[in-house]
Amino acid sequence: MICVECGNPQIKRLYSEYKSSHITLTVCPVCHNVADKYIEYDRVLLFIDILLLKPQAYRHLAFNLTEEQLLAGLNGTRTRKYNSVFRLFIVFILFDVYLVWAHEERKPTHTPAMQTVLSQAVYVQYLFFIARSVCETGIQSFLTLLLCQIGTNWGSNAPYVNIPKHLQREYSSEVLLMVILVSSSIKLFPILMLIWPYDASTQSLFIINIIAFITSFEAITMT
Known about the structure:
The protein is mostly helical. The protein has a domain at 78-222. Helix content is 61%, strand content 3%. It contains 9 helices and 2 strands, in the order E-E-H-H-H-H-H-H-H-H-H. A two-stranded antiparallel sheet has the order 1-2. Strand 1 and strand 2 form a beta hairpin. Helix 2 packs across helix 7, helix 4 (83-106) packs across helix 6 and helix 4 (83-106) runs parallel beside helix 7. It is elongated, with a radius of gyration of 20 Å.
């Protein structure tokens, strides 16, 4: 666990629970603030703070929730350890497929390859756009992860007290993947354009992609 205010990775627990069911939130010994105020927040408030790019919200989601999931799955299967990242990846892919598919169908002109795809049965088109989205998201996430680990030595110097030594690197990678996926979710906002269509949808998508890149960079920098 880490302090969402100052990033102190030496937090052993976020709260203490007593026999009377009374709960006391842990205070960070470094900054003297509550280590993680978001454990008492509603998820809607957490979502709003993530949209506002508040570093505390990103640290809570990426570090503390991920650590809780990882530790809970140590005695389970490997898939269970990555439930949060896996679920987020699936949701992102499903929305991205719908968005890209609708965007391609609305284009006035298509390349010969895309014309061939769009002339196929619906399930073939669906499989194509799923494969395309998985490849694009996977490659982008992998390259970002690789650049951060090589360029900034991400996660190699943070002694997370609750994580076994042999899982420190693995945990850091999962944290970074969570940050990448959450910050990239802004790319799904053009779904609103399918409800309220705009004349310049192509330019709008380009702007959204630029904003998504800036958001991802800022989120990685904050965490």
